[in-house]
Design goal:
Helix content is 0%, strand content 50%. By secondary structure, it is mainly β. The strands form two sheets. Strands 2, 4, 5, 6, 9, 10 and 11 form a seven-stranded mixed β-sheet that branches. Strand 7 and strand 8 form a beta hairpin.
Amino acid sequence: QVQVVESGGGSVQAGGSLRLSCTVSSVPEENYGLGWFLPSSGKEREGLSCADPYGNIIRSAESVKGRFTTSRDKGKNTLNLQMNSLEPEDTAMYYCAAGARYCSLRDDAYQHWGQGTQVTVSS
């Protein structure tokens, strides 16, 4: 059984920062590839960043490089997303996913999803 829980969302003004966290618990314990995603108008969710199961590889989408930083404590199923210089266009529900065998920005690589955490940026 795998549980994915996001936290850290909220409301900020443009230019502000938020730090999202994703914690994954499973029985039995296992390290998973983790990722942050946005919903999209198409069938696939938009991948923002990912980490491999061991925290050795972290990738970010070009759209967030320079503003968002992803980190993972090695050996732990926790993925953090530090978001700086937020813009109103960043307003969305942010989802964490677990289950990939590697770092992937494709949503079909993941089997387990959280409920999402809302980020609202006002101008």
